[in-house]
Input
Amino acid sequence: MTDRYVVIGNPVGHSKSPWIHAEFARATGEDIEYGRLEPAPEGFDAAVDAFRTSGGRGANVTLPFKQAAFRYCAELSARARAAEAVNTLVLDRAAVYGDNTDGIGLVRDLQNNLGCALEGRRVLLLGAGGAAQGVVQPMLDAAVAALVVINRTAARAQALAARFPRIRGGGYDLLDDAVFDLVVNATAAGLVGELPPIPAQVFARGALAYDMVYGRDTPFLAFAREHGVRASDGTGMLVEQAAESFFIWRGMRPPTRAILSALRGG
Ligand code: ATR
Output
């Protein structure tokens, strides 16, 4: 029988995950079906219970349910614990298992697709919400030289920084004379057409600007390009986090290059 998976979110109609996983299945010969579930805001647990009871084997979780998924799991990976959020559920075990592949997805996109080695690099992370929280531990695991978290609400960045060794956090005023090799925008500013208030001097020579938002050109990416800085949206992170979920479920790594270039319209 075909193994069934879903992406759970609200709204979820725009999600590219069903298409990406169908491509992974085709490339690897795995017999899976991958659909969408859109529970009401309070309906996450009931929707997962029903899917699991009907034989569903796993799920990806997107906004606004990643924290609800974290609470739902009986067992958690170390990276899900660090992120305090779950984007991958394994439902075909005695105890529901949750993992978080967002951060490793970003790290793989940077290192494998964009040629941006992280070891020894100075990294600036903008934002302190769920998106930012998910990438801190994987960045530290990649042996960055320095990680600074900056947020509009400075106290939120300080609180996030305090949970991890070796990272600093605060408000945008800390950026007056700081310089970074990689600047990751994990804020929601781009979704409302806004630019986080960063000075152009934050970009070191040869720096990369990365926006975790995908499929749209944000003011942050435009700002970086205007200052001669290489800029990338989050399409590769989307594909790489999906590949890691597929690996968790199926035990094999799907190829990602062709899918990434198809999503980019190449
Ligand atoms: P997510 O889970 O996507 O990270 P979130 O928890 O709502 O969503 O966090 C959104 C992040 O974007 C926060 O860091 C937010 O800053 P505040 O904590 O000060 O609210 C940041 N953000 C949203 N709009 C922004 C803007 N226009 N400029 C700068 N930061 C912004």
